Amino acid sequence: PKYVYEFTEGNKDLKDLLGGKGANLAEMTNLGLPVPPGFTITTEACQHYLEHGEVPDGMNAEIDEKLAALETQMGKRLGQPDNPLLVSVRSGAKFSMPGMMETVLNIGLNDESVHGLAKQSGDERFAWDSYRRLIQMFGKTVQDIPGELFDDAIEAVKHKRGISSDLELRAEDYKELVQTFKDIVLEKTERDFPADPREQMQLAIKAVFDSWNAPRAVLYRRQERIPTDLGTAVNVCSMVFGNMGMDSGTGVAFTRDPASGQQGIYGDYLQNAQGEDVVDGSRNTVPLADMERIDPKSYGELIAIMEKLENHYRDLCDIEFTVERGKLWMLQTRVGKRTAAAAFRIADQLLDQELITLDEAVTRVTGDQLAQLMFPRFDETAPRHRLGRGMNASPGAAVGKAVFDSYTAIKWSRSGEDVILCRRETNPDDLDGMIAASGILTSRGGKTSHAAVVARGMGKTCVCGAEELDIDTKNRRLVAPSGKVIEEGDVISIDGTSGEVFLGEVPVVSSPVVRYFEGEIDPASDQADDLVRAVDRIMHYVDAARRLYVRANADTPEDAQRARRMGAQGIGLCRTEHMFLGDRRSLVERLILADTEKEQHEALAALLPLQREDFVGIFDAMDGLPVTVRLLDPPLHEFLPDVTELSVRVAVAESRGEKHENDLRLLQAVHRLHEQNPMLGLRGVRLGLVVPGLFTMQVRAIAQAAAERIQAGGRPRPEIMIPLVGTVQELEIIRAESLEVLREVGEQYGVELDFPIGTMIELPRAALTAGQIAENAEFFSFGTNDLTQTVWGFSRDDVEASFFSAYLEKGVFGISPFESLDIAGVGRLIKIAVEEGRAARPDIKLGICGEHGGDPASVRFFHSAGLDYVSCSPFRVPVARLEAGRAAA
Ligand code: PEP
Ligand code: MG
Predict the structure, then answer these.
(1) Ligand 1 centre from 393 Cα, in Å?
(2) Which residues contact 753 (CB under 8 A, 6 or more apart)?
(3) Most CB contacts within 10 A, which of 219, 306, 411, 594?
(4) 709 near 620, Cβ under 8 Å?
(5) Fold of the domain spanning 375-509
(6) Where in the chain is the domain with CATH 3.30.470.20?
(7) May I ask the CATH class of domain 4-238?
């Protein structure tokens, strides 16, 4: 194969082979934009190197050949002593990845060619500055020498000279630094800094290859499920210099504002500087618009190129560029990252400009982004005092008292305080504190740090890596760059969507997007801003495009109404268990304690009218739409009092010689019903089979409620669902009893009650025998919470607080299988059940009602698995609608 491509040979669609950076450099070259010439070494070369420990045969010869061509084109040789060609070596994988080596600039400099560069540029200071940059970057990234050693050496020279800015360093100072840096390299690597330019290049290329397996890159890939064998490409590009005087400079530009999506001129420019000066923040950039005044010619050219790029890529592009003595060069472009709001606005604008179609527009926004837009946010009109900023690790707006250790977080939150847990970084010992806190703030670590990963997993607001904040856990305080000190107990507000940290309580407002979904904002009115209009336009499209129906999990009339406003097309799961709590607890106790059939009967008869009223309200709220009512699921003992409390009560009564017969019976029942493993115990259909009359009472309540609604002119559409079925026989018994009740009640009321009876599929055995089960079920609803629990053998109530943080940190999974469906395992069972269920009963209705029904990636899977509907919490309904539409588009 061919391992090296000139920029003129590639294009933007070759990202697999040339990496993102290389493919886009080639694309820009082909568009006729001013890209410094160069070539890209393919990911295949990297794959070979990673597999065999050596570069593939022929790669070096190809590099020599392309280098020779580059030298001819540029009219100078790499490192030529009197007139050197210098190159940069940059990594460029298909996906950008934290932890990978980025860039080595100025390759080709050595003790001789530095003089050539001085002559060529007429600037000795520049030449020596460039040389020390090479040794510094090469030392850090290729030779793994700690960067502080170089930084400290620079500081030492500045200190000696009594100056504070790098700009005041002279050629002599840089000469001295070059020597110091070379000494550092010698000491740390036990050999001289390599003077041979081709060797410099070769080592840099290998270092890029090796960085594919840097620990942070490995972890990131595991968490993001990026295949480990893709490898990275390497770009070798002739150098252009932004630090050749005030008519030179470097900058970044965006074709639209990546934060808001608004059109305009966005970016930063820094005169007389090279790329890393912009990033390291040691000098202040100016807004890109100021460049118009500084260098009108290059500015005009840049603006024209930005327009060209945007029209070409038909999307927001971000750009890195350099001006060398008045000549503009493009160093990089890519379709830029953006906030959730910007994504919707940009899609809408591009539709208006007719640059994209609606089909494409829905590929530009995601369910995750819509979910982000629905979080409550800080009131932008409220006055606020910003303390600092970190990374937006997990979205949301959290307000609370600053605490600096987990113990205090737990203690204070128990007494009802909202707290923000502030740590330098978190570790598994902080887990309980993180759970107790309203939000998490760290000063160290990136988006894959423990704090960030765990917070995202818990859906908790988190700002991480706020390095400008000095979090001093020992003294329990935090110091902002302004000098402002936050002591333990002072209130702060953190914005996990923007990464900002504020002093005091910033008021929180509900999102306008939620108010739109709730019907409070009419998208056609001037109350609606462009974001709401963009969301509205996309939602109309996805609703028409999707095949999946979206229902909600709701068990009160209020929730049902809310779900309906959010666009739910029915209820996919009405859990009846909460209906047995509160005042009704004593009735349940009576049922459990009943010794005789008569007592049992009475207890059930007392519950019946209450249940009936519950269902009347829900059927009314969902009139005309299906409502899947699930019969009682959890273990009975959950309705009984706590064993310790009860034991104490009994003991106290005994010691006082008081009457306590009832409590004693209760206590005996609690003991009798106690299970080591209640999740695998007497629950679901097993209850229905063991407690006589319980399920038939519920079915009767459903039937009577429906009959009442019919008589009142309504259109109730209940569906009766049996939970935790493992074998068809269980279902057969309950089904026969239920049909009998429906018939009876129908006769009593003189109405026809023909409602589907179906089951949840939430045990592996149910999935594996779906064909048999389908003979007695008119519908299946996958209970992916329990199915995940039973397929993995993970206790759904315990794992997130016990070992999941370790699993996430080690990258066993990037996201909990309770959050996003495990497609390979749980998904496979679902596919089997779908296939065999449909084979046995072609018109069977198939849905899913576990938490995964509102998770974007899972919704896409349910679409492809051929389900009829997903059901999720009311708040997630819009996300599921969007993602179902995206899956179908
Ligand atoms: C499930 O198990 O996925 C389900 C929806 O039921 P529950 O969460 O109530 O057990
Ligand atoms: Mg379940």
Answers:
(1) 29
(2) 703, 706, 707, 742, 743, 745, 746
(3) 306
(4) yes
(5) Glucose Oxidase; domain 1 (3.50.30)
(6) 249-335
(7) alpha beta
ipTM for the predicted complex comes to 0.99
**Closest atom of ligand 1 relative to the 573 alpha carbon:** 5
Q: Closest Cα to atom 8, ligand 1: which residue?
A: 785
Q: Is the CB of 850 inside a 6 Å radius of any atom of ligand 1?
A: yes
Is the C-beta atom of 762 inside 6 A of ligand 1? yes
Cα 412 from Cα 396, distance rounded (Å): 21
Q: What is the pTM of this model?
A: 0.86
Structure token digits, residue 856? 């974007």
Q: Tell me the pairing of strands 717-722 and 626-630.
A: parallel
Q: Ligand 1 centroid vs 326 CA: distance in angstroms?
A: 65
Q: Which of 553, 555, 633 for mutating ligand 1's site (highest number of atoms within 8 Å of CB)?
A: 633
**723 CA to middle of ligand 2, Å?**
7
Contact status, residue 298 vs residue 326, Cβ threshold 8 Å? yes
DSSP-assigned states of every residue in 380-422: TTS--EEEEE-EEEE-SEEEEEEESSHHHHHHHHHTT--EEEE
Residue of 556, 236, 876 whose CA lies nearest to 884 = 876
* Element housing 720 (H / E): strand 717-722
Structure tokens at 33: 């934009």
Cα 350 from chain centre? 25
Closest atom of ligand 1 relative to the 784 alpha carbon: 3
167 CA distance to ligand 1 middle (Å): 64
| Partners of residue 39 on adjacent β-strands | 6, 236
Pocket lining: 555 vs ligand 1, CB cutoff 6 Å: no
Q: Where are the CATH 3.20.20.60 domain residues in the chain?
A: 546-584+594-634+692-888
- β-strand partners of 401: 419, 491
User: Ligand 1: distance of its center to the CA of 636 in Å?
Assistant: 16
Q: Give CATH for domain 546-584+594-634+692-888.
A: 3.20.20.60
272 close to ligand 1 (CB < 6 Angstrom): no
The CB of 783 under 6 Å from ligand 1? The reply is: yes
Atom of ligand 1 nearest to the CA of 789: 2
Positions annotated as catalytic residues are: 450, 849
Q: Is the CB of 96 under 6 A from ligand 1?
A: no
Q: Which ligand is nearest to the CA of 574?
A: 1
**Range(s) within the chain of domains with CATH label 3.30.1490.20:** 4-238
> 164 CB contacts (<8 Å, ≥6 apart)?
158
pLDDT per 10-residue tile (average), the chain, 889 residues: 96 96 97 97 96 95 97 96 95 83 90 96 93 95 93 94 88 96 96 96 95 85 80 96 92 90 88 75 79 96 96 94 96 90 95 95 95 89 92 89 95 94 86 90 78 74 92 95 95 94 94 93 92 97 97 93 95 91 84 88 94 96 98 86 86 88 86 88 94 95 98 97 98 97 97 97 98 98 96 87 78 85 97 98 97 95 98 94 96
849, 858, 870, best to mutate for ligand 1 pocket (most atoms within 8 Å of CB): 849
Other beta carbons less than 10 A from residue 390's beta carbon: 25
Encoding tokens for residue 510?
A: 């509900």
Helices (DSSP H) in 238-392: which residue ranges?
275-279, 291-294, 296-313, 340-352, 358-361, 367-373
In order of 523, 869, 888, the CA distances from 362 in angstroms are: 19, 20, 10
Q: What is the whole-number distance in angstroms between the Cα of residue 621 and the centre of ligand 2?
A: 24
249-335: CATH class: alpha beta
